[in-house]
Amino acid sequence: MTNEITNKAVILARGLGTRMRKQDDGAALSDQEKAMAEAGIKALIPIDRPFLDYVLSALGDAGYRRICLVIGPDHDVIRRYYGEEVQLDRLSIDFAVQEEPKGTANAVLAAEAFADGDPVAVLNSDNYYPVGALRPLREQGGSGVALFDWQSMTAGADLPEERLRSFAVGKLEDGCLKAILEKPDEATWQALPRPIWISMNCWQFRATIFDACRAIKPSKRGEYEITDAVQHSIDVFGEPFRVVTTSELVLDITSRRDIASVREKLAGVEVRL
Questions:
Q1: What is the C-alpha to C-alpha distance for residues 144 and 59, in angstroms, rounded to an integer?
Q2: Residue 272, domain member (yes or no)
Q3: What does the pLDDT read at residue 74?
Q4: What is the residue-averaged pLDDT of the chain?
Q5: Burial 220-232 (b: 16+ CB within 10 A, else e)
Q6: Backbone angles phi, psi at 60, to 5 degrees
Q7: Residue 2 lies in a domain
């Protein structure tokens, strides 16, 4: 198994923000929060400062230094903020454009030139991941995934159980990922061994992932899914994905109602970019 330790990370910030755009009278938002929510730009939702600043700072704390933001062709506000306005002391930020929203595997492909043959971490722009997951994921080298304890997330993340049940579940064998199960049905869910480890799209990939992204077919949703590329890597390429498991929480900012809870949990968190 390789032991390639990287300082590169890719953040998928191309999403359309469909659920964030949805009106919610139960979510008390400031004018600035409402403006970003209506634009669907979750990365820039102001939690004292843009939410993505916290995500980037955690990556810096974990030892990553070179960051690529995968954005859409019309995301000038993100490019301007991170390319011109914000002060960067320990991180450098590049951009890659996913021309059309064709799924997470297609978004990863947009960052192939940035990776340039090196391993890269890949994560969402609307999740704040704990350094306790990011650092060991980086330091173990090679391909890997951080998986999170479903019961801990249910108890502490202020997310509805229905949403948590919609996340993919990792099946483990000898410390490696054997399979990734997308939205398991009730019978499969009940048969899963406990604890249940869910994926929040926090990966580290070797360069072979790009060949896997090109090899897969669209899912039933018509998108190229990174979970399908991972399964292809495991089954066809024989790529081992070592697993980091943790009971620490991931903060998810999918909808307007998440904003108040995330703001409370991030209060006092220092940001260093």
A1: 16
A2: no
A3: 83
A4: 88
A5: eeebbbbbbbbbb
A6: -60, -40
A7: no
